[in-house]
Amino acid sequence: MAFVAERINRMDVMKKFSYTPRWIIFLIDIVFCICAACLASLVLFDFQINSVSWGKLLPAILIVLGVRLVSFFAGKTYSGIIRYTGTEDVLRIFYVLTAGEMALMLINGILFILDQNFYIPLVFLLIEYMGLMCAMTIFRLLIKITFSQYVGAQKGKLNVIICGSDEYGLMAKHALDNAVAVSYHVVAFVDVNDRKAGNVLEGVKIYKSTALEYLLRRNEIDRVIIAKRMLAQEKKRKLIESCLKFNVDVLEVPQFESWINGELSIKHIRNVKIEELLERGVIRLDDTKLRKQLLNRVVLVTGAAGSIGSEIVRQLTNFNPSKIILFDAAESPLYDLQLELLEKIHFINISIELGDVRDVQRVEYIFSTYKPDVVYHAAAYKHVPMIEMLPVEGVRTNVLGTKNVADMAVKYGAERFVMVSTDKAVNPTNVMGCSKRIAEIYIQSLNSVNQTAFITTRFGNVLGSNGSVIPRFKKQIEDGGPVTVTHPEITRFFMTIPEACQLVLQASVLGEGGEIFIFDMGESVKIVDLAKKMIKLSGFELGKDMNILFTGLRPGEKLYEEVLNVKETTLPTPHERIKKAKVREYNYKDVVRMMDELDKAIHAGDVFRLVERMKLIVPEFKSQNSKFEEIDFKLETAEKKNVVDKVI
């Protein structure tokens, strides 16, 4: 209880100190002014108090005090919060005192003209100016240091290394010095520019970036802050990996644009995101061809409110289409995207259309009204376990919905149709992946009999998208864990949303029609390793603060994703990150007949018949960890019987 009472008393003292009235600061400054004037008088008479002609100096002192009082009031030197005194406060004092000094010189000059004598001794003015400047500045800095030491004694001190010693690094240190809730001690600066190594910045030594692990090993470091304006992605990744190895929190200073009034606050310094460990270099886009394709054109984006669709829309705004039609069934996300485009991006050439790609009348209304030149088809159901449980809805959206949009693109003369597909369409083990493969087959076959160029883009998981593992892990970490992973060996390919959408736009330029473009996904990532890194980046220690729980593979889920069917090969394209798949071609009439069979199964409500039809269309579709595995057994048995019958 005594400890609690002591803490309350200290808090009361701090509270009173933090609300010191401005008039008290104003009076203190006036006292300093009087003391500076007295000091100047003593210096003027060699500190011989008895020799001071106070009768002659008193009018001069009163004039000085009057001018200083007016300048203090006009310049509001008393308005700053003393414990947060910074460069701007010191500069304000300098400007106010200098302006007052010039006013005094002017008054002195006028008096000299009137009676040919300096009313205020020039030496007196100089000494008073310098003494007052020192007194007001030192007083504020002493209060700041005292408060910092007092508060620092009440709160835990965190050791910090700042990566970057340019203006970003310096501003980060200042933000840490001014932090209220926590006391920070900057142990070292680390910089990728080796020429800076060995120098000292505000009393802190600068080290080479290669010395980071040595510093982490030798010191008890709590946080590392990346404060570098331009840092290569690979170097940034290495810095983060080194920190994670020592269970050190990693934070980052955002770009200057997000600072308030050009000043960095401790609140701006944020945790490093897992996406920054996985993203790759900037993609080279053929802006000239994209601009030629999109400039003053009408563009339709289906699924525009989704994570992929909305990013495609954002990037399309850079190429000045005459109109972008945002078509989606999700009302609130579509409204949010509308506000973002109007208020943040300031792009007004948009039309908002609520509707479902499964509704053929609604789709036709969109095409007949706007007659889009280019279509980006991103609308789809993508959640594997959900579609495995509800295959009818998955096929209605992913297959028949795609068919509706593609047919209308042909009917109303769209030049290009770009479909967003998935790597789960390769050797599918679930209904979702197979539905996307059937959609691919349909638009490829449609390409061969129409003028519209149909192009498919195929890539893996995107970081942070709706249904992605990243938001799920974040939510579990926020809730205190555990973080659930289906299998210790499960891997996935990952891209960032902007990266994926940039490649979609680039593929739309490369394609002439009928192609399936495969994106370079880099190396596959173990999901359990992803979970471990996210736990560490969130400031928790694996096994101590939070655990990972393995829950088993979900229906339709496979351990490893593939980029291409085993029978497929790839061909190079002018873009190093995009390959063209060489795939089997289908006859359009045969595909239409297959679609009719699917439609009949949907209307009959026969789920097993529907999935069986899908397996006949895509023979490589083999269900895993699913109730539909019995269909595979049935088809394999029938196939073996046919072989035996033929032999007999």
Give the topology, please.
Blueprint lengths: L1 H17 L3 H23 L9 H22 L11 H29 L6 H33 L2 E7 L3 H11 L5 E9 L8 E2 L2 E5 L3 H7 L4 E4 L6 H13 L3 E4 L17 E2 L3 H4 L8 H8 L3 E5 L4 H10 L6 E6 L2 H14 L5 E5 L5 H11 L3 E4 L6 H6 L1 H21 L4 E7 L8 H17 L5 E7 L1 E3 L5 H10 L4 E3 L5 E2 L1 E3 H14 L5 E4 L5 E2 H11 L10 E3 L18 E4 L5 E5 L5 H17 L2 H11 L11 H19 L1
Parallel strand pairs: 1-2, 1-5, 2-4, 5-6, 8-9, 8-11, 9-10, 11-12, 12-13, 13-18, 14-17, 15-20
Antiparallel strand pairs: 3-4, 6-7, 16-19, 18-22, 21-22
- Structural class of the secondary elements? alpha/beta
Strand content: 5-15%
Largest sheet: 9 strands, mixed
Helix fraction bin: 40-55%
Number of domains: 4
**Tell me, what's the shape?**
elongated
Instruction: Please report the distance between the alpha carbons of the first and last residues.
Output: 95 Å
Q: Care to count the β-strands?
A: 22
- State Rg: 35 Å
Q: Please name the CATH topology of the largest domain.
A: Rossmann fold
CATH superfamily of the largest domain: NAD(P)-binding Rossmann-like Domain
- Give the neighbour order of strands across the main sheet: 10-9-8-11-12-13-18-22-21
What is the CATH C level class of the largest domain, in words? Alpha Beta
Q: Give me the CATH architecture of the largest domain, please.
A: 3-Layer(aba) Sandwich
Poorly predicted runs = 1-18, 643-648
Total count of helical runs of at least 4 residues:
22
- How confident overall, as mean pLDDT? 79
